[in-house]
Amino acid sequence: MARPRTNDEAVRERLVACATEMLATGPRESVTVRAVAAAAGTSTTAVYSLFGGKDGLIGAVRDRAVGGLFQDLSAVPTSKDPLADIYALACAYRGWGRGHSHLYTVLFGGAQSFDPSGAVGAHDPVRPLVAAIDRAVTGSLLAGEATSIALSLWVTLHGLVTLELAGALDAPTAEAAFRSAIHATLRGWATPTVFRSLRRTELVP
Question: In the prediction, which pLDDT does 25 show?
Fold first, then answer.
């Protein structure tokens, strides 16, 4: 009888999915090669063959999260209004987090560190946000350094999404908090002229 394959794409997907769930629901120390392999219905050999070990598997989970968030933010179209684009990107970020709660928890919940300054490289999830902020700064809509503005906006987004995923906010409260917090953050960085004219209806379709 032929031995079952331990390195095909289906096994890889199961291992990544199981590792994602385990990382999202428990401490990293509890995620062992044996435990993940058992949950995925395969052998420890598959983990080493496909990922080189536990660190490689966890890296694959993080790469999946980074790539997914980057893809969704990159899909947001660019308009002539950088502030509207920033708001749209914030909405995309929130939408990805709500739709991929396990991956979000792995990426931002402490299992992996994340540097919003661009250390992730070409697929840095916040790169589209920084680009939109750059345009707003260049157009004298926001005052400050783009990375600092992006960091403050990301901190706000992360807090909101984390509370929402934890069930701390009901749907109406989460929606109202999201809109008011993002607008308040943008007003805080706005140039004086924009600050006087900035209204919620200018950013929300």
Answer: 81
**Together in a domain, 108 and 26:** no
* DSSP letter for each residue of 116-161: TTTTT-TT-TTHHHHHHHHHHHHTTSB-S-HHHHHHHHHHHHHHHH
Same domain, 48 and 72: no
Asked, for residue 3, whether it belongs to a domain, the answer is no
pLDDT at 31 (0 to 100): 86
Residue-range definition of the domain harbouring residue 43? 9-52
Q: Judge whether 72 lies within some domain.
A: yes
Q: What does the block give as tokens for 82? A: 């950088």
pLDDT 10s digits, 125-150: 778 899 999 999 999 999 999 989 99
Co-location of 182 and 82 in the same domain: yes
* Contact residues for 73 (Cβ-Cβ < 8 A; gap 6+): 89, 92, 93, 96, 125, 126, 127, 128, 129
Residue 37: count other Cβ atoms within 10 Å of its Cβ: 23
